[in-house]
Amino acid sequence: MRNSRYVVRWTVALGMIVPAALAATSYALQAAWWDSLPIVVPHHWNFAGEPDAFGSRASFPIATTVIVVALPALLMAFALPGLLRGRRGPTYRLLTAFALGMAVLGSVLTTGDTWLHRGIAEGGPWPSTTGVSVGAIVAGVVCGTLAFFAQPRQELMRPDMHTPAALNLGEQERAVWMHTTAIPVWGRAGLALGAGGFLAGAVGLLASGNATAGVPMLIALVVVILSAAMATAFRVRVDQRGVTAVSMVGWPRFAVVAADVASVAVVRVDGLGEFGGFGIRSGVGATGIIMRNGMALEVTRHNGKRLVITVDDAETAAALLMAFAKRARATPSVSP
Amino acid sequence: MLIRIDASSDISIFEQVAAAIRTDMAAGRVRPDDKLPSAREVAASLGVNLHTVLRAYQVLRDEGLVDMRRGRGAVVTSAAGDLTELMGDIRSLGTRAAALGMTPDALASLVRDTLRSTT
What we know:
The complex is a heterodimer of chains A (336) and B (119). Chain A is an alpha+beta fold and 336 residues long.
């Protein structure tokens, strides 16, 4: 099925033009109601629905800028480079729908809350914002869903995808291919810097006697460090059993057994556009170990699900895996 | 890194494993300061005895291509990097031999026999 010629146009229309229009409308309405707003408005509500933190009324246009302008723009920055280079796939469609859904949610939320606070005196009494919050979420989900299905379907299209020839393994031959893959050095440096800052913050809080904030921060730091260790460096292996990718700390582990390999390919991955980012990712119908952009090993199982691993020398890995898959097909194993 | 062994070959398995790693070093796929995978993993993947792989690693250590470090395993030395300099010579030799109608295997035998008799 050929992809529609209008994919980019739909993306720009739904992911950029509509959010821009929603932002413009929100700013205009908020400006019109500005003078009737109290200078100080609630910023946070507790579980009983009562305001427990306050701030400037400027929070409405600021929130509009973050949720209706910046966030959709970020998602479009993820999706457009790949799309403009001719890539297609269901994740791009999802990114666009998400951008529009967020824009709708944000504009209904901020403008609705502004509308609620018109004519309220300084200090209250404060209107209930629950209705607007619920309405914003519902509107966002509905519009985002509509935006997804309104767009033309995108069949996965990667210009640099190819299938190498299977390695010619003799009957008496055995082989193993091993390689490591990890996020680039600057990524690790950035994470270390962030962790260091977090640690300094936690230590500072604890030293000043603030355990209620310091302890959770320390716990959060440990969780972040563990997650980073599990998701930023992997050992990849292709052998008689199939393909396996294990995190450097031993877990998690991703594998496809040779008998379950339906097809193998070498592809060029667009991390942001196809998987929405880097690390251990979930795309539409695919699990990715995406350490960087560039050449990756893609294994498709018989159930259609794909495992994508960015790794150097993916060509050799693919050729070997194809040879083992062929072997596994030729000699079905008998379960004990 | 790719290790291929032929169980039906006359060359012993551990020599084949060492040769495969040496080739990867010469091709620059395995670089100085890289850590070789654990012998246990390689043995399990190839379906051979652990000590066979350990012997292959010891061969490479005796050649000065890896360092066996406690706790770290086999680490590739800088000497392995020097192997890449041989690749140019090997390729030009191969081209000349091919021009004479020699197969790579025939050339390898000739090199082996010649150098064995001179050392």
